[in-house]
């Protein structure tokens, strides 16, 4: 967590952790939390933003097993309210990839309950496909809720344990970005959020069992350091 000295000077910090438990701990410390779920939650989010989504949320499915508190109904409610406020559609991206909408709905009833409580009807539920989601629906001006076992659950944990802001990051190719640009923009997003709230940054590899998530979080961390964040 970033700290303030006796004369209120902000001292930025950077940490890397993993799993929903790490996300919850970082949130409780007051850090901006970036979720890195390369395949595919954070890549889906980045692609949706590339394609014009105005805001993106993450949530856990119903039957997830995690040692920390999650509340997908609460996130569904706030995602729904965001869509209502902007007079726009809420799009859900979830799993399994190869299934009907009805099958996908089976494990996201808590989030759907929150969305309905917000007064929103859901017509569009798409699979969590990373960069390929742009082929399925128009994201321009829409709000997106990504509900997945790892990235969505880590986001949910950070959100519900009080992080000042929960964002996502990826190093994978997206709709408009390739090469190092996804990682660079992720690093810059984290820095901007931390500067806004005068906090540290914690990068969360969505699963400690996912080598690609861990390596991606490390790569984004290196770019945050190269941008001079720790010397601010």
From TrEMBL:
It comes from the Bacteria. This is 2-phosphosulfolactate phosphatase.
């Amino acid at each position: 967590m970033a700290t303030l000295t006796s004369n209120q000077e902000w001292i930025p910090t950077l940490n890397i952790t993993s799993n929903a438990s790490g996300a919850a701990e970082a949130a409780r410390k007051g850090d901006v939390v970036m979720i890195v779920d390369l395949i595919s939650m954070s890549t889906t989010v980045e692609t949706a933003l590339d394609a014009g989504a105005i805001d993106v949320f993450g949530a856990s499915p119903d039957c997830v097993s995690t040692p920390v508190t999650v509340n997908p109904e609460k996130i569904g409610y706030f995602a729904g309210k965001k869509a209502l406020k902007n007079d726009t559609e809420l799009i859900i991206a979830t799993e399994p990839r190869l299934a009907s909408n009805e099958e996908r709905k089976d494990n996201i009833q808590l989030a759907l309950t929150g969305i309905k409580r917000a007064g929103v009807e859901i017509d569009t539920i798409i699979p969590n496909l990373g960069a390929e989601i742009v082929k399925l629906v128009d994201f321009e001006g829409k709000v997106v809720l990504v509900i997945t076992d790892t990235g969505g659950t880590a986001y949910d944990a950070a959100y519900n344990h009080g992080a000042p802001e929960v964002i996502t990051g990826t190093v994978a190719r997206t709709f408009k970005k390739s090469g190092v640009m996804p990682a660079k923009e992720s690093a810059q997003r984290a820095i901007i959020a931390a500067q806004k709230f005068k906090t540290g940054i914690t990068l969360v590899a969505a699963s400690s069992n996912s080598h690609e998530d861990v390596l991606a979080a490390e790569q984004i961390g290196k770019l945050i350091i190269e941008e001079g964040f720790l010397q601010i």
